[in-house]
Amino acid sequence: MDAASRLSLPIAIERMDKRYGAVTALDGVSLRIAAGDFVTLLGPSGSGKTTLLMVLAGFVRPDAGSLTFGDRQVLMLPPHARGVGMVFQNYALFPHMSVLDNVCFPLRVRGIGRADAGRRAEAALALVDLAGYGGRQVHQLSGGQQQRVALARAIVFEPPILLMDEPLSALDKNLRERMQIEIRRLHERLGMTTVYVTHDQREALTMSDRIAVLNRGRVEQYATPTEIYEHPASDFVADFIGESALVPVTAAGDKAALGRQQMALPRPAPAGNSHLLVLRPEKLELLAPGEPAPDGANVIAGQVRDRIFQGDSVLFFVALPEGQVFTFRLQVRAGLAGRLPEEGAAVRFALARQDTLVVPKSA
Amino acid sequence: MEDSWIPWHRRLPLILFAGLVMLLLVLPSLIVIPMSFSAGDYLEFPPREWSLRWYRAYFDSSLWGEATTISFIAGLSTALLASILGTAAAWGLRLMGRGAPPLLMMLLTMPLTVPVILTAIGIFYLYVRLDLVNSMTGLVLAHTMLALPFVLILVLSRLQGFDLNQVRVAESLGAKPAKAFFLVVLPQIRFAVIAGAVLAFLTSFDEVIVALFITGGGKSTITRVMFTSLRDQVDPTIASVSSMLILLSVVLVVIFQFFEGRGQKAAPAARKE
Amino acid sequence: MSTLALPAVASPTPADLARAERHDRWRRLALVAPALVLIGVLLVGPFAWLATLSFLDAQGSLTLGNYEMIFEQTSTLKILWTTFRVSLLVTFFCAILGYPVAYLLGLLPRRAAAFCLLAVLLPFWTSILVRTYAWMVLLARKGLVNTGLKDIGLIDEPLRLMHNESGTVIGMTHIMLPFLILPLYATIRSIDRSYLRAGASLGARPTTVFWRVFFPLSLPGFLGGLCFVFVLCLGFFVTPALLGGGKVQMIAMIIERNIVMHASWGAASSIGVVLLVTTVAVLWLGWFLRRGRRKDA
To answer: How many contacts (CB atoms, under 8 Å) link A and C?
Structure first.
């Protein structure tokens, strides 16, 4: 079982529509996923990400559209004929079978003999660090171990495509972060095309080759994690990814105005009538009183409304003259204590021109 | 007492009263058992002399023998047929989920709500025309219909806690829907199905009214023979038959409780996963 | 599976997808179909047929004659009244005997309750004929009850306990009790005990807590169970036929007699329709009471 011997398939989704009564779950979704890519469907609940995954698996039939795995149209195929591995949020292990029988299941229903299936299941269990757990009963395992069994069961028959529906959301934070890395490593080793659904933006940024951000049944942006983070295509993406504050600005060409404060943009503002400036705490640099801004940086002035001590950092709520509030986080370092701005103090921030992000305001 | 907002000695009247009612529920039927061992021509309690006379009378009688055979065949066939049809229907309803038309559930539980006398005359009316009166097929079909709701309700309530993702996962891993059902669902609901089958058997075995209309002569069920005997001329053999029926009920209750309990114990564990 | 055979390259049209969706829906319905057909053919069909018959006269033309007969003949009216009275009495006795049992079972720890529940389940599972027979033995002129009462000197002459209404009511109450206790027990078990402790801790007297808090919470299950018992009584045949000894006539018995002795299907069906309509109305009332209660809870 390694990437070289494995067949992975590209996925093409074209103009996919799905309505439930008056609710539009998918609204003309098109997405091309390259063979072997790890793609995350990211969005809030109700965005259509799970519906899209269920369409890929064959549990939900869209009203219109096309879906191909490789050069095969699969939309009319029932789930069992699609040959995809599937991992559910609640693991969905079969409680009446041992761990080994769970992992053998996909092989046994394909008519593979008990001995051969058992050998391959053991190998799959070893891949998820559960070698020797085959004889256990499902309920004897911890949540993390159950999730690994579900993973082993989904990959044991070497499917060219692996689908995962929020597989880590039931685990605690530490375990979740460890499993993220393990799943990613497993993907690199096995190389099957993987579609992963999550509502956790950090998880998406950590694991994916590409992220498709979904909102109200539409793909807002489909790009690499860096691209999504650095150049969000819409205010929705900018708001959903990272700890951003969105502030209305008037923009034209490569100039923007935040109230009376003028700023220069790295490239011409996108088309549209109104725009929003994306302020991310980590992009802002606090200027000491009287300190000049670095060359070419934009300056944003405001007033500290509130500050919250959070242990390793201090969170400031800063109000602009126009009234909008954004947050700014300052790492606590030795020697800084006396220099922290007080509540009510006037503050200035430098924002590098490269980081001055303006997105169109959606209707 | 789980909650103690009333001191328990003040509950004594309640305990005595409820205890008396429970005794009155159990005792009357049990009285029949000692009487059945009476030796006299009339049944008496307590019997002056003990004997197996009325049991011998039962086993020597071809009327009772044939009726017992008919009842057992009908009961077992009903149990088999009702558990298959009821389980299939329950699974269908579970798959439909909230999309199941409310009318469907109403129709499927109708045999429970329509007075049996009406069911009986309807079936009689139909069977006269189909020439199914006095046939085992007709009896089993009628009893299966009456027993269906019991299986349906038992299996469906077990299935409500069943995670459909298990079936989805089984199908995506390569199992056809039927295979997914038999490999993944059925093993987990088997206790509810067995409990339903037991209940279906008893429904058929104890059924009087439909049998009264559609069976007769040498094809009578045991309950029909009992009913006519009780109405016309009480034959003391009935005491021995009744005692054996009570024994059968006790055995079946124990089996039912065992399987139903197992099913319920399995349910929360399955939900956790 | 027909969906497998479709060509693999072309993208399916919305019509294809809609057809496949319908196909799936039919497949789910196919699982329910055998049960539905059985009930349709054996229950709904014949009764609908009979109901139609009840509106036709001997010549096959539309008439309300059968129904006029029910309400004009004093004998039929008397039977309807008897049925109603007996059912009401049985329901009443079930209420006062059954509630305390269900209440006590609800207070007991689960294990003890499960054991005591056997006292309810065992008769529930015992054949109605056997239980009716037992009461015939007990209530007979020289039966256990009469001899017992005579032995302790309470009576000189045996009481007439059987082949009359009292015998019928006693036997039916015994048979119907589990039908009330079992659902009521389930309701009582599901009542959140913290309400009661809250009531008690606020200084309310135990009886006040019971009547103001506990009883209203148990009322939906109680009323639902009573409606069910009442409906079962209305159509009950075996016990009144045997313990009534022909002296207590109830609806189910005239329906049987009309068919077995007179073969008058029209008369039997019209009474059947009246019985069914009453049954549905009472069941609907029970359902409505339960639902309405749950809403304002």
So the answer is: 39
